[in-house]
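[step 3/7] inverse_fold.run input=structure_tokens len=248
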């Protein structure tokens, strides 16, 4: 049974709240911040890349060269028909049985556009084919970039577009002197999320702090009744920006 701890994200202090809670393992979905809090499982670990410690592997360098011709375009968070068409192709091919499989164009527009903080849509296009092939909805935090949701052309597996977008976000963060790229959640042993552990400099939020990941095998999915603190204790240990009236 999935359970989440969440709070609304709104008002003039939305940016401060998003920055503070992102540093404590929370993620944003439209105007809500959430963190998994399942009663008998704490397998989902928030993950980020320490840009200063990242060194591309041989495979990642090949991916970067393979996509060298792609053109990047950063825009305001505004949904387009081309984005939605690519999003549908991606879901149908990769996540046809997932929770987002039934999203229509209006729900997609809400996902992209309903953001009370500083967000960007970063598009990647192939100039030869004149085609949009990858998109990332990205939040700009005070200490990094948060890749809220990414999707890409499913018919180009040889290009490793998901990896390319992360590599490019590392480059953007490095140029902007931002220390981290937030990737969302990583689950030990999950094949779908295993790619995140392939990036050097990875950190995961566990036990109330960020820990460096030297070897993914050192982390095991905690799935017993005592693996998650009671909700009251979790809330008591969350640091909020000063004078923010948020209620969980």
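[step 3/7] decode complete -> sequence:
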């Amino acid at each position: 049974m999935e359970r989440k701890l969440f709070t609304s994200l709104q008002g003039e202090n939305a940016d401060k709240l998003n920055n503070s809670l992102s540093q404590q393992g929370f993620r944003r979905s439209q105007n809500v911040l959430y963190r998994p809090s399942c009663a008998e499982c704490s397998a989902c670990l928030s993950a980020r890349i320490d840009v200063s410690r990242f060194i591309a592997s041989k495979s990642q360098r090949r991916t970067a060269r393979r996509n060298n011709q792609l053109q990047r375009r950063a825009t305001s968070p505004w949904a387009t028909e081309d984005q939605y068409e690519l999003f549908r192709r991606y879901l149908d091919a990769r996540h046809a049985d997932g929770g987002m499989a039934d999203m229509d164009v209006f729900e997609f527009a809400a996902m992209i556009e309903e953001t009370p903080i500083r967000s960007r849509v970063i598009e990647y296009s192939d100039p030869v084919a004149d085609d949009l092939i990858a998109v990332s909805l990205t939040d700009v935090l005070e200490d990094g970039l948060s890749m809220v949701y990414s999707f890409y052309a499913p018919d180009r597996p040889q290009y490793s577009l998901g990896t390319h977008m992360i590599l490019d976000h590392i480059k953007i963060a490095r140029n902007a002197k931002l220390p981290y790229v937030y990737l969302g959640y990583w689950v030990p042993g999950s094949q779908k999320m295993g790619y995140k552990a392939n990036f050097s400099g990875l950190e995961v939020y566990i036990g109330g702090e960020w820990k460096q990941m030297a070897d993914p095998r050192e982390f095991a999915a905690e799935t017993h009744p005592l693996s998650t603190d009671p909700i009251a204790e979790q809330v008591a240990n969350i640091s909020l920006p000063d004078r923010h009236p948020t209620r969980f």
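[step 4/7] annotate
The chain has one domain: 45-219.
Residues 45-219 form a domain with the Aminopeptidase fold (CATH 3.40.630.30).
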